[in-house]
TrEMBL record:
Organism the protein comes from: Candidatus Auribacter fodinae
UniProt xrefs under InterPro entries: HAD-like_hydrolase_sf (IPR050155), HAD-like_sf (IPR036412), HAD_2 (IPR041492), HAD_sf (IPR023214), PGP-like_dom2 (IPR023198)
Name the UniProt record assigns to this protein: phosphoglycolate phosphatase
Pathway(s) annotated for this protein in UniProt: Organic acid metabolism; glycolate biosynthesis; glycolate from 2-phosphoglycolate: step 1/1
Keywords, alphabetical: Hydrolase
Amino acid sequence: MTNRIHRSNIVNNKPNFIFDWSGVISNDLDVVLQTYNLMFAEYGIAALSLDEFRNTFELPYENFCRRILGDEIDIAVLQDKFRQIYLGHNMTPSVIPGSEDVLALLTRRGVKMTILSSHSFVSREIERYFPGKNYFSKVYEDIPDKRTCIHNLLDEMEFDPMHTYYVGDMEHDIITGKLAGVRTIALTTGYRTKEMLEPLEPDHILDNLRDIVPLLNIC
């Protein structure tokens, strides 16, 4: 990670936020599971239940797919299949209740926000969820392994790690945030339960995105 001082928001002592998308802002667990089950069915794999999916899905998703389908599977082919199924079946996740209220509040306070997600259709869904709104300075989407992107994101956005929160719902998010030296917030609104996230020891574990608002007073 670069040693230069990041300037963004330091003068006003405002935090920066990096948000995961799925399970943090977008309630897409069910539709992502449905997409994977439709894709796996093409290979003769029985459908996973929600509990089975929660217990086995991981990021980078390549690891998950290889565990289900074997090491010889072509991940590029799977990525194309996933996108085709997701779009072809008109999967329509919904925004997690209360999320936009938080994004609007942070925007009014001059807080800079970005998205870092492995999901391929974040920009498309942002336009559907928040038409005409510009909550995010930049969207980093379709990133299979977020560890490969986090330092570049901090540099491009001029985010000082000491003034930056990474909000995610999976182990991979917490690991990525710790790697970059930012503060980590785990949410239980998505793909993992509190019990699954606790061993990662994030700085905070919250039950809803609304709960980040009080944190602004300690930044």
